[in-house]
Specification:
It is built from one helix and seven strands; from the N terminus they run αβββββββ. The protein is an alpha+beta fold. It has one domain. The longest helix has 22 residues, at about 5-25. The radius of gyration is 14 Å and the shape is globular.
Length: about 100
């Protein structure tokens, strides 16, 4: 496992731990709000991205790109945290712009 892969896995694990911890301490009036899951299909989404569900996986690539997955995201995504999957190649805050 390369250094970047290891860092990505640690980041994902820490993100999930924080999200689960935050979920456990939500007030009752927020119980229907999702912290990291897409309500439509119960997939776990990486909170480092917005405007589309970027799944939590060992690697995520843009569906229109040449990456080999195992997971893909269709359309552009806004990077709101760490770009752990390298979807924003030009560092402008938007990933998968060519989709």
């Amino acid at each position: 496992m390369g250094r970047n892969s290891f860092i990505a896995l640690i980041t994902i694990a820490a993100t999930l731990i924080i999200a689960v911890s935050a979920r456990a301490h939500e007030p009752d009036f927020l119980e229907n709000r999702s912290v990291v899951s897409a309500a439509q299909n119960d997939r776990v989404c990486d909170p480092n991205y917005a405007s589309a569900c970027v799944p939590v996986a060992s690697d995520v690539d843009c569906s229109a790109g040449s990456g080999n997955g195992p997971a893909y995201v269709a359309g552009s995504v806004r990077v709101v945290g760490l770009d752990v999957y390298g979807l924003d190649r030009d560092n402008d805050g938007i990933g998968c712009e060519r989709d």
